[in-house]
Amino acid sequence: MRVPLTDLHDGRVAPYVALRDSSLRRTAGNLFIAEGELVIRRALAAGYEADSFLLSPRVADALADVLPAGVPAYVGESRLVEELTGFHVHRGALAALRRDERHSTAGIVGSARRLVIVEDIVDHANLGAIVRTTAGLGWDGLLVSHGSADPLYRRAIKASMGAVFTLPWARLDGKVRLGELLDGWVIAALALTDDAVELASFATSQAALAPGAKVSVLLGTEGHGLSPAWLEAADHVVTIPMAAGIDSLNVAAAAAVACYELRPPCS
């Protein structure tokens, strides 16, 4: 349902004002924002319910085949949209969608064989890139610590190219004990320690290649790495060898290397 955007003070477009994602959860019906035509298509295809859309005329035409009947699509020129949102919407497409907590930690652990688990990754672009890597290399799911960024934050969604809508993910309880949660799993922590083994060697080890082995990779922040408690929970500490005086990779790049080396046997 197209609605011409003429009044920037129209209360119906309040979710898009300055795009403060945290306030969307508190005051706007537990919504999140998706940006870009492809990402919006993927969100709708994954079954997320749209509350409204904010679109340029061109994108409104392009998305006409998937816009739900009865859901308002506010259509305005780029200048008005940018004034409303407070930034340049270069794709001309925003959607406010309802959050849907689809997976539980127990459910993901119970059904997966390959898991990425991140501790306190607060950069949304890095988290989104990790989501995209996890899905793209055939891993079964992602668990994020209590202190990590929101996978449904606009920038995280954008970096994941919408993979967050289909990859099973859940947020860990702040008091989780990884050793108990992952009983029976091979837990590999990516970290710089004196006893760390090279990732390539671990990838060909009996632990990683055993028939039916369930393997999880723990990733921490670039500044502080994994906490002592998470390192203690790991069965193995692995590292990616560096050259030229560089001590480590960006966490999203490290996740990509680890997920490729330890990808499921049939991938």
In short:
With 267 residues, the chain is of the alpha/beta class.
What would you say this structure looks like, in words?
This protein has 267 residues and is of the alpha/beta class. The chain has 2 domains: 2-98, 60s Ribosomal Protein L30, Chain: A, CATH 3.30.1330.30; 105-261, SPOUT methyltransferase, trefoil knot domain (Alpha/beta knot). The protein has helices at 21-27, 37-45, 57-62, 78-85, 105-111, 124-136, 154-160, 178-181, 199-203, 206-209, 228-233, 251-261, and strands at residues 2-4, 31-35, 50-55, 73-75, 93-98, 114-118, 141-144, 169-171, 186-190, 197-198, 215-219, 236-239. Strands 8-7-6-11-9-12-10 form a 7-stranded parallel sheet, sandwiched between helices. It has a 5-stranded mixed sheet with strand order 1-4-3-5-2. The radius of gyration is 21 Å and the shape is elongated. The mean pLDDT is 89.
| Principal-axis shape | elongated
Q: Architecture of the largest domain, CATH level 2?
A: 3-Layer(aba) Sandwich
DSSP helical segment count: 12
Kindly name the structural category.
alpha/beta
Report the end-to-end length measured between terminal Cα atoms.
42 Å
Average predicted local confidence, pLDDT = 89
| Helical percentage | 25-40%
Number of DSSP strand runs: 12
Largest sheet: 7 strands, parallel
Uncertain residue segments: none
| Number of domain units | 2
